[in-house]
């Protein structure tokens, strides 16, 4: 079928298409709507072993700026203004939460990957996580051996950050970090990069671990409602993603220590009980430096104390359910490999 606008974001917000659809775009390319909010577009003549790019946004429904950035990229691919050289899957992560303007409805979708959805079968997000895993599986299964697999999961954070834009590099189980990918993140405007040190139930860890994708969670600023975002602040990543898709990227110099600050996770603050108390202002910025000896949080008899004066707090959120992560304590890191 054809449609005059092909505004895929509007399709999601209007819940227009919950079943598979296929459209011929003005650019001549075919767009395949595989499931609600899951779109695949193949280039006209992909090179053998072409890079496969998965872009996801709206995994947290109220993080609107990345949704608008990806929507703009899709619009330009649809019109032909932006050439598409590589197979592309775009995922609008949590359409129901996007429509409600909420982070999630029943359970944080970005804690349900890696099979964790099976432990929360009653949440509306569980079925969605399973569907997104299957969608990523099917997409990357089509990549030939040797084809680069890339996944950027775009977010904005609940709070402001001492480093406005930062990337999270999922745990690689001892494999070396890719210096070209780190260089791409640097050139895309990331102000800091966190090298995660253990598995996580996030979408980017899933594609990294399952499909050996170069997968990253990108935190691109503070979450604001639709229409209130200053999209100028997202120009760097917008340009980098467009270059990635169109094959017009300038050569990227390998990342060197010192290019942008690197951090590694020291440990998670786990909220074990409702007695959990976080001793940080509710407006504290991500990556706020923690003085040596500072008591970060208490939970019954357990105390979390900052050590060394170089640790910083990331994603403090005492409102999570008991058993979940209420923050990450991070420390400076250098690339060894
Ligand atoms: Zn998010």
Question: Nutshell version of this structure?
Answer:
With 337 residues, the protein is α/β, with parallel strands linked by helices. The protein has 7 helices and 16 strands. The protein has 2 domains: 239 residues, Zn peptidases (Aminopeptidase), CATH 3.40.630; 67 residues, OB fold (Dihydrolipoamide Acetyltransferase, E2P) (Beta Barrel), CATH 2.40.50.630.
Features:
three-stranded antiparallel β-sheet; disordered N terminus; binds zinc ion; 25% strand; Aminopeptidase; alpha/beta; globular; OB fold (Dihydrolipoamide Acetyltransferase, E2P); 13-stranded mixed β-sheet; 2 domains; 337 residues; 7 helices
Describe it:
With 337 residues, this protein is an alpha/beta fold. It is built from 7 helices and 16 strands. Strands 1-2-3-5-4-6-9-7-8-10-16-15-12 form a 13-stranded mixed β-sheet, sandwiched between helices. Strands 11-13-14 form a 3-stranded antiparallel β-sheet, with no helix packed on it. A hairpin with a 2-residue loop joins strand 2 and strand 3. Helix 4 packs parallel to helix 6. The longest helix has 18 residues. It is globular and about 60 Å long. The N terminus is likely disordered. It binds zinc ion. Zinc ion binds next to loops.
Q: Tell me about the largest β-sheet.
A: 13 strands, mixed
**Overall form:** globular
CATH fold-level label of the largest domain: Aminopeptidase
Spatial separation of the terminal alpha carbons: 51 Å
Could you tell me the radius of gyration in angstroms?
20 Å
Within the largest sheet, what's the order of strands?
1-2-3-5-4-6-9-7-8-10-16-15-12
Structural class: alpha/beta
């Amino acid at each position: 079928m054809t449609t005059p606008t092909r505004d895929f974001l509007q399709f999601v917000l209007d819940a227009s298409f919950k079943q598979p659809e296929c459209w011929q775009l003005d650019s001549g390319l075919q767009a395949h709507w595989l499931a609600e909010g899951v779109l695949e577009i193949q280039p006209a003549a992909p090179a053998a072993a072409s890079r496969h790019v998965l872009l996801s946004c709206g995994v947290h429904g109220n993080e609107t700026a990345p949704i608008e950035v990806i929507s703009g990229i899709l619009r330009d691919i649809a019109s032909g203004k932006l050439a598409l050289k590589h197979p592309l899957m775009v995922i609008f992560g949590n359409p129901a939460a996007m429509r409600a303007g909420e982070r999630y409805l029943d359970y944080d979708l970005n804690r349900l990957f890696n099979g964790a959805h099976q432990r929360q079968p009653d949440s509306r997000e569980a079925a969605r996580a399973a569907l997104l895993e299957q969608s990523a599986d099917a997409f990357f299964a089509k990549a030939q051996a040797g084809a680069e697999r890339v996944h950027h999961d775009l977010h904005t954070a609940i709070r402001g950050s001492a480093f406005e834009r930062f990337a999270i590099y999922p745990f690689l189980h001892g494999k070396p970090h890719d210096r070209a990918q780190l260089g791409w993140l640097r050139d895309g405007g990331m102000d800091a990069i966190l090298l995660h040190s253990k598995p996580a139930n996030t979408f980017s860890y899933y594609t990294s671990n399952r499909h050996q994708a170069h997968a990253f969670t990108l935190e691109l600023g503070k979450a604001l409602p639709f229409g209130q975002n200053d999209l100028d602040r997202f120009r760097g990543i917008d340009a980098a993603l467009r270059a990635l898709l169109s094959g017009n990227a300038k050569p990227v110099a390998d990342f060197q220590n010192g290019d942008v600050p690197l951090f590694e996770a020291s440990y998670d603050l786990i909220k074990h009980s409702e007695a959990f108390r976080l001793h940080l202002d509710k407006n504290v910025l991500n990556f706020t430096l923690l003085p040596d000896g500072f008591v970060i949080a208490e939970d019954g008899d357990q105390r979390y104390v900052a050590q060394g004066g170089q640790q910083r707090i990331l994603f403090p959120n005492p409102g999570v359910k008991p058993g979940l992560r209420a923050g990450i304590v991070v420390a400076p890191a250098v690339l060894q490999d």
